[in-house]
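Write out the 3D structure for:
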Amino acid sequence: MAKLYAGLMAGTAVLWSVPAAAQVAAAGAPAETDAAPDPGQLTEIVVTAQRREQSLQQVPISVTAFNAASIAALSAETIGDLDTFTPGLTITDTSVTQPSFTIRGVQTDDFGIGTDPSVGIFVDGIYSGRSGSSLIFFNDVQRVEVLKGPQGTLFGRNTSGGAISIITNKPTDTRSLSGTIQVGNYKKVRADATVNLPLTDTLYLRLNGVSNYRDGYLKDALTGERRERENNKSARAALRWAPTDATDFVLAYDHDDTNKDGPFAIGISDFALSNDPRGPFTNDVIDDKETRVLNAVSFTATHHTGPLTFTSISSFKRFETHNREDEDGTSDPTRYFDTENIERNSSVYQELRVGFDDDRLSAIAGASYFHERGRQTSAVTFLSDSVDRLLGVVADFPVFTILNTFGGLPVFGQTFREDMNNRAANDSYAVFGDATYKITDQLSLTAGIRYTHDRKVFTWTNGGFISPGLDAIVAPGGLYNAIIGVDAFPADAGISVGDFLRQDFIIGPNGLVFDVGALENVPFTRRETFKDVSPRFVVQYDLNSDTHLYASASRGYKAGGFNSTEINSFFAPENVWNFEGGFKSELFDRRVRFNASGYYFKYKNRQSISLEQVGSELPQYVTRSGDSKAYGVDLETQFVVSPDLTLGLTAGAIDSTWVKRIEQERNLAGQPTGEPKFRGVASGHYKHDIGAGSIFADASYSYTTKQRINDATRFTDAAIAPFVDFSKLDRLRSARNIVNARIGWRSPGDHVSIAAYAENLLNNKYYRTLNTISADIFQTPYVRAERPGFYGVELGFRF
């Protein structure tokens, strides 16, 4: 067991978005509104999962929600910090600009601009279409809702797996100033401040800023340099005009500037410093960095008249990201290999909808439009040293070694880079409606439908190879020919070494000679159109005011697309039917909340990427489609032990398998998709008034079973087994135990708070991924580390 940190350590934040008298949610517990009149009761949970404010207990959807209190209890800075404490949700965020989202085993794992996510991310109802802009840092957030299963009739687009909805705080008519200052291990310093100013009786301004820095938690054994450093600044400004009680306008601006280390590759092969992921380790990547600059403007208008509510949401977003990371986990220049993702993206989103609400009928209808322009460069870089190794293996002679030996030319240490440049122009139109009608006081029926029309234009341009230090010496075409696995000098080609050094050509698989200039920098464009109709049906029956039963059937859809690194690739749209049933209940005078649901879904053409050998020396990310199915159960319960103590338990179990899938030339039908079978989260919140304020404590424990593997994974493991010691990778796919905690004090009126916090209290060290992109050519697979234990203290103020 990892060494325990002394004492129970925990974090705090003043609850800017919750009234001072509100009961703080237990860590990982659902978001809550004003405190119940009886402190011995659970407070009501209000969400907007159906695009209108409703009690969570009356929403026939499996939802996990976090308010500002529960976010602070976990010391969460992004939604990536919430997944460990959300059964059914997994977020791989080792790269903040290229995250992967999974809900109930359905994964968005391709960050290329040719495909779309299966899990929709929405900020104040606005769709974030690209992974580069989806994992934003929390900035004055009121609530986060995780909706499981397809949400097509309720949210913008591409929510076949589910949706994550982030709701920020709106300006109010109350003058306030609040903030936090946090310091912790690894030189952590984080500060945020929020000011709310009523400018007139109807015009309000809200400003928020966050600055965050943390030193790296990994140390390069050769250079002594710290890696995995954090550095980000973000800000939000919102101006609200409420000329009447029925009319409301909010203009908001969001900015994010992230400049951090790129993900660190920990080598585990015999060619790394150690084949043990616990180290020592080193990394020689050139210009290692991960950056993002994001700017977004949104305008939301709402007007109520009688039972009708009219809403317009408009948004413009632009961001740039740059991520360069090591792919070999060594400091050996003859095995050097890195990848780089450079992306520029702009998007426009417009939604118009009308809602109707009376005693019997609640309904929404509307239309949405999403327009996107994206540019992406996927680059790979070798050194001439590593190319020389490749040529020595592939062509049976090391070209640069020959050059150095006979010509004395300084060709070692030169970079050798290839670019794949992509452009995307996407348009999506949709009309939708969703209505709930109460047939009796106990029985309600819901029906919804969305029609979507997607149009995509995608362009590939192979930028060829660039080697500033070698262009005058050797021909990039010949080197490329060797790298891709073709004999550099076939016996019947009639080309000598001298020809190779003087000419710019590629020798094809049949010995044919091609002019490199004719193949590089030539754009190839493909256009596709997709149409879809997705319905939703729900039956809900209220046994009484505290117990609600429901059953639903819903269809989800994700547009088809293109693999950004494979010219003229295409994959069909993805769709899913999800069937779910469950109940929500509050018992013993609202002292116990118990919700449960069971579901079954089947995906058709489920899209995911796979790193495979495709007739080349360098493995490629290939987009594969397959059919999968899953059975699962979600459970959530909270109970008030005493007015001071509340406990909670959430859990999710799933059996996700492939129905049809070919990967690594293996038939995976009937085998696991990779999703762990179970995750359970236990949490507790304690608060006690002591006269001079109050003391509080929060603790959350998450347990996730080991990752399930299939024959494709076993094949990959067997291929690298000769140079990897798997006995040292016991924490790669193992079960995971994570504890977060905080303890502190608040002054009377909650004006000042001070607390200690801990994330991953037990300092358990796990590894997120095993990457084999360089395993075949250099025998250098690597892993990426998950974060260790973080702890510190936090001072909060509110006036």
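Confidence is low (pLDDT under 50) at residues 1-37, 472-518.
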